[in-house]
Amino acid sequence: MVSLVVLGGLSGFTALLAGCPAKVATVEVTPPKVSLRGENEQKTLVATPKDEDGAEIEGRQVTWTSSDTGIAVVDSTGKVKPAGSGTATITAKIDETTGTSSVTVQLLKGVRLEAPAIVIKVGTPRPALKVAFSNEKGEMIDVKDSKVEWKTADPNVATVGPDGVINGVNPGSTTITAKVDGLSADVAVTVNPAEAGSDAGPAPPDAGLKK
């Protein structure tokens, strides 16, 4: 006859059958890289614990921390918000195992145009002005995915297309504005008459605009 002694009562027997909790071998944090630009922009990270075979483990508590709260802060749910320009590492800890995500913050605080004023002639398109961006420290930053919105104060003097190309319509003065993420920069535009002997005459109001 075989006797089975159950230590800890029925609950102990259940735990014995279930075995010990799976050990966390790795913690995968997604996305592994995050870029934030606006002050109100945020991103939620997800931490997934896995065992030594790569199988996901459920029901584990995650502790989130930031290597530099002056750059990025993270709450208990993994939501990351920007605090200042730079790079910080967000760490997810489950049991004694950790995983990380790299967060790069470029706070867009300024928009500049290459010149405060330009002079063009009627009927002669002027290539788009170069737009520069700066952060809260006044440092120039590279913002490749920014969409610039162009606007003219007086389309009867000069028009501006969605690509920023400026075209003189009639002699006079106006202002062209470039706007990005709520920030804007202006350039004063003076349009002079076309040169004598030139075939260029007053351009139609929609000149330079793409259809």
Topology:
Elements lengths: L8 H10 L7 E5 L2 E4 L6 E2 L1 E5 L12 E4 L5 E3 L4 E4 L3 E9 L2 E9 L4 E4 L3 E5 L9 E4 L5 E2 L7 E4 L5 E3 L5 E3 L3 E9 L2 E10 L19
Parallel strand pairs: 2-9, 11-18
Antiparallel strand pairs: 1-4, 3-7, 5-8, 6-7, 8-9, 10-12, 12-13, 14-17, 15-16, 17-18
Amount of beta strand: 35-45%
Total number of domains: 2
Mean pLDDT: 85
- CATH domain class of the largest domain: Mainly Beta
- CATH architecture type of the largest domain: Sandwich
Q: Helical element count?
A: 1
* SSE class: mainly beta
Strand order, biggest sheet? 2-9-8-5
Task: Describe it.
There is one protein chain. This protein is mainly beta. The chain folds into two domains: 26-105, Immunoglobulin-like, CATH 2.60.40; 110-192, Immunoglobulin-like, CATH 2.60.40.1080. Helix content is 5%, strand content 42%. The strands form six sheets. It has a four-stranded mixed sheet with strand order 2-9-8-5, with no helix packed on it. It has a four-stranded mixed sheet with strand order 11-18-17-14, with no helix packed on it. A hairpin with a 5-residue loop joins strand 12 and strand 13. The protein starts with 8 loop residues before the first helix and ends in a 19-residue tail after the last strand.
Provide the descriptors you would attach to this structure in a database record:
single chain; about 210 residues; mainly beta; Immunoglobulin-like; four-stranded mixed β-sheet; 1 helix; about 5% helix; about 40% strand; disordered C terminus
